[in-house]
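Complex record, two chains
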Amino acid sequence: MQPALSPAQLTAALQWRYATKAFATNPIPAETWKALEHSLQLAPSSYGLQPWKFFVVSNPAVRAQLRPHSWNQTQVTDASHLVVFTRRTEMTEADVNAFFNQMVAERGADATKLEPYRQMMLGGIVQGKDLAGQREWAARQVYIALGQFMAAAAVLGIDTCALEGIDPAKYDEILGLQGSGYQTLVACAAGYRAADDKYASFKKIRFPEQRVFGRI
Amino acid sequence: MQPALSPAQLTAALQWRYATKAFATNPIPAETWKALEHSLQLAPSSYGLQPWKFFVVSNPAVRAQLRPHSWNQTQVTDASHLVVFTRRTEMTEADVNAFFNQMVAERGADATKLEPYRQMMLGGIVQGKDLAGQREWAARQVYIALGQFMAAAAVLGIDTCALEGIDPAKYDEILGLQGSGYQTLVACAAGYRAADDKYASFKKIRFPEQRVFGRI
């Protein structure tokens, strides 16, 4: 495939991104938002198991309820879009089978031939990890999706702010997630920076190359 | 900023990406690789604390040593580039200060005025989390960088394969990371897919929209 972007264009977009504090009110156009949802749905995950669900919270009353459980950060209510990233609470054989059966069906594959792959997933994730291990494995996958989402937004000229300073249990309560099989981990606001967000002009602070890279 | 990509271009690039199994031998051009390193260095992290170090392993002998500890996956030795993603093993006041002091210096800010921000970071990460909590927090940040890296590669037309099936302790040993303050979490191969990698043509399996998205 031809690169969609030149190296310089990519770097410029990622350099332009910052943790937006103040959002303007203008909404992300529908087609752009759809592409951002695709960036979530297409995110890579271990074995392809997608142990996640993304809640797009549009209801202003619900967003107002979430804000006090987010250190009162204005992004929760003001940004065009708010996504709550949740992980699968537990990984069972049914989760593996859902993925496996869809794979067999959509690829017209032979389930018997692929059975060793199913066993590998079961051994690696369902039997091979305790509940805490499954949850942390799932959390890491969710953060891949978060990283892909913020990078995707940047190249689309959309601002984001990841919100880790939230109360996940309160989010679960407000979003009605108890018993759903999913748990809140982190949220991310997306939209357009306000013209007067002073943080936009602050120099990005990044450790020097020799601290960040090892060369072997 | 003008979007660097249209929504359709972004989706096409992310749809094109897959977990590459067989890499060709041609190398990533230097300018493109530099942009991919920038995508790592510019990755977002909680408070901006960058609790990570990325090891670019170019030495073929070292890559050959790593391969048996990676389920013998050929990507480890064959891809143009191999990055080992490591997390900071422990977060101390010195880590917070390194970031804080650089911020104060580069922004010409007043350290006294910003002291509450330093205290907030210390309270949130250094004092507010035990060692296991710090490690998991750091791991999640590293996975943001991994997600940004794979998305960045896709829009540059570069193939990747994240490798979670590795033995982190063996990697640490081979890379000489014991006592370095960094621990291996995951690796990622990058380069160009081999013309005969049959996985390239397989339909991408993604759960249906109603399983992946909640709308509130």
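Note: The beta strands of chain A are 52-56, 81-88, 159-163, 182-191, 213-215.
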